[in-house]
Write a structure and sequence with these properties.
The chain is 41% helix and 19% strand. It is α/β, with parallel strands linked by helices. The protein is flat, with a radius of gyration of 23 Å. It starts with a strand and ends with a strand. About 2% of the residues have low confidence. Bound molecules: guanosine-5'-diphosphate and magnesium ion. The site of magnesium ion has 3 residues, from helix 1.
């Protein structure tokens, strides 16, 4: 799962990214922290997994992770080759979702590329670039798919019509996510990877002393950013990127004390990771055994048991026989597998069982 961090220069992307990188590097039992200089691999804390691990005596605990990519070079006119021009595109296309960092702090020491602080105008600048980039890509795709559709193959015709509708939408400033993919051409989206089809979280980078403006001492995004997100069915949150970057250099205790001083309840990084997870539309299932690792696995909602087993290992998917499944809460309440089995609560499910969020699964398979 890859999340791209985008935004104008000086919005606070790298400050946030650096904080995320340090958080990832500090997480225990984590085998691959630094993949590339602009990629931070960050564990997703999960209290349900913690409880399961404790109940069954599993060790170590391995959380699911999200890869954050710091994507630089997106400036006004990028689609015409300004900044890094179209280079940034390849980076964004590979991501599953976007965190759009928007400057909303008033620190005059930090230069704004356009000489004023206006979060909504900045959002529009970036989104215009993404729209143009998609438009260019879609026009190229149309040339190709129009030729392919000449033979009258149903899928190609449907894809061509979709690309035409997409182009019309983009020209009107509407993002690709508003143009439904036709049933007859299920691969249409994957063939194009439009940037404006990706789910987005607007992350307002606010002054750290804006604490308490949101619920429970959280930082709140400016109302116009919230309204923009709501209009698009997107999410919005707030963080102080500089504060997070500074806090990530302290040990946990000092960081918590400083947060308490500022009246900020939750770590901004926790907010970002949780929101990113929600953005990806994923659920988690767990595997855990006494003396073995306890682990969370992310799957799309609606995934069947055999498919889910494939996340653990392709051999386990191939040799899948059945799965023993129980909800995490029930397992914890019963005190472990033995009691669950005795009381007939450990269900045996077949390959087509649709996984639920928080299921604990043990797969029986033939190697
Ligand atoms: N006052 C203040 N300055 C910030 C904040 N976040 C970032 N900055 C500063 O803004 C400048 C640009 O930040 P950076 O993360 O490099 O932005 P990027 O270009 O989007 O990667 C740096 O000098 C940061 O220290 C913030 O929340 N408050
Ligand atoms: Mg940067």
């Amino acid at each position: 799962m890859k999340v791209g961090i985008v935004g104008l220069p000086n919005a606070g992307k790298s400050s946030l990214f650096n904080a995320l990188t340090r958080a990832g590097a500090e997480a225990a039992n984590y085998p691959f922290t630094t993949v590339e200089p602009n990629v931070a691999v960050v564990p997703v804390p999960d209290e349900r997994l913690d409880a399961v691990v404790e109940t069954v005596g599993a060790t170590p605990t391995v959380y699911e992770t999200i890869e954050f990519h710091d994507i630089a070079g997106l400036v006004r006119g990028a689609h015409k080759g300004e900044g890094l021009g179209n280079q940034f595109l390849a980076n964004i296309r590979e991501t599953d979702a976007l965190v759009h960092v928007v400057r909303a702090h008033g620190d005059e020491q930090v230069v704004h590329p356009e000489g004023r602080v206006d979060p909504l105008a900045d959002i529009e600048t970036i989104e215009t670039e993404l729209l143009y980039a998609d438009l260019e890509q879609a026009e190229r795709r149309l040339d190709k798919v129009a030729k392919e559709a000449k033979a009258g193959e149903r899928e190609k015709v449907a894809e061509k019509e979709w690309v035409q509708a997409l182009i019309a939408a983009l020209r009107e400033g509407r993002p690709a996510r508003t143009v439904p993919v036709p049933e007859d051409a299920p691969d249409a989206l994957r063939n194009l990877h439009p940037l404006t089809a990706k789910p987005v979280l607007y992350l307002a980078n606010v002054d750290e002393d804006a604490a308490g403006t949101g619920p429970d001492g959280a930082l709140a995004p400016p109302p116009e950013v919230v309204a923009h997100a709501e209009a698009l069915g997107a999410r919005a949150a707030a963080v102080s990127a500089r504060l997070e970057s500074e806090l990530s250099e302290l040990d946990d205790e000092d960081a918590a004390a400083m947060r308490a001083d500022l009246g900020i309840a939750e770590s901004g990084l926790t907010t970002v990771v949780r929101e990113a997870w929600a953005l990806l539309g994923l659920i988690a299932f767990f595997t855990a055994g006494e003396g073995k690792e306890g682990r969370a696995w992310a799957i799309p909602e609606g995934t069947a048991a055999r498919r889910a087993a494939g996340r653990i290992h392709t051999d386990i998917e191939k040799g899948f026989v059945a799965a023993e499944v129980i909800g995490w809460r029930e397992l914890v309440d019963l005190g472990g597998y033995a009691a669950a089995r005795d009381q007939g609560r450990l269900r045996v499910e077949g390959r087509d069982y649709v996984m639920r969020d928080g299921d604990v699964m043990t797969v029986r398979f033939t190697p």
